[in-house]
Design a protein that fits this description.
255 residues, alpha/beta, Rossmann fold, binds S-adenosylmethionine
Length: 255
């Protein structure tokens, strides 16, 4: 059972690194500078708040590990900011795409395809561990969190994002896959598990996240309303959605 779920997650993300679908990249040639530019522009148009959460430029010269690099767009920002970059991902597709993404701009990173539930780094190796939208996809999120804490230096900081269950997007998924399918008893957790990206995706409340990160100090969790929440609602209505109903929960925690 364990092997199978992990393998399904891997196969899902091998098909296409996150954020590189043809809807985004249009007619540009795969791997070209134009292709990468479109991926980057789209990402920060849709998720502009990444910059204020990650604060890439404050970490010049620091040793940064990114867990789950995807297409490498945030990884490029760490490299541009002058961090010493390390990155891991479960898939070859993400590692190859990230390597190409950095190399097109003349940057390098130490990239490895591994399961982040076991990180191949010594204790207290990194100033920052960053992970945007990844930990909720793995079978045992608590294992990745334990590993992140282990590899962080004393006072090192984790920065990231995980999905929020009490969100407008979770409600929309429930409407589509539970209520409108005549199965209103299905829980938000169940529809997210089966219908959000790779199978086995989880989403949390702020207090559940507090518990998961209870081994850290100075923990903060800030929900953010995203375009994924507001899409399909009339603008006059969605502008009243408070951040606490957001699909993304931005996280910061100190070791
Ligand atoms: C939603 S994408 C996010 C990628 C990138 N951080 C971004 O924001 O675009 C999820 C990524 O997590 C990776 N992933 C899932 N489980 C993982 C694990 N156990 N170890 C390492 N990477 C994992 C997937 O391969 C995929 O690239």
């Amino acid at each position: 059972m364990s092997e199978t779920l992990k393998e399904k997650v891997r196969q899902y993300w091998e098909q296409e690194p996150c954020g590189s679908s043809q809807q985004i990249t249009g007619a540009s040639d795969k791997g070209s500078i134009e292709w990468f530019k479109r991926i980057e522009e789209y990402r920060y148009n849709v998720e502009p708040f990444i910059h204020s959460v990650a604060k890439f430029t404050r970490h010049h010269g620091e040793k940064v590990l990114e867990v789950g690099v995807g297409s490498g767009t945030d990884h490029l920002q760490w490299a541009r900011a002058g961090a010493e970059c390390y990155g891991v991902d479960l898939t070859d597709a993400a590692i190859e795409t990230t390597r190409a993404h950095l190399s097109i701009y003349g940057f390098k990173s130490n990239l490895q395809r591994i399961d982040a539930e076991e990180l191949p780094f010594d204790d207290e190796s990194f100033d920052i561990v960053y992970s945007w939208g990844v930990i909720h996809h793995t079978e045992n999120p608590e294992r990745i969190i334990r590993e992140i804490k282990r590899v962080l230096k004393k006072e090192g900081v984790f920065i990231g994002m995980m999905y929020g269950r009490r969100s407008v997007l979770a409600f929309k998924l429930w409407l589509k896959h539970a209520l409108l399918k005549g199965r209103p008893w299905r829980s938000f957790a169940d529809v997210i598990w089966h219908h959000m990206e790779s199978v086995g995706t989880k989403a949390y409340t702020v207090s559940e996240l507090k518990e998961l990160f209870s081994g850290f100090s100075d923990f903060s969790a800030k929900p953010l309303i995203t375009p994924y929440d507001t899409s399909k609602w009339p603008g006059w209505l969605s502008k009243y959605f408070p951040d606490k109903w957001g699909w993304f929960i931005a996280l910061e925690a100190r070791k």
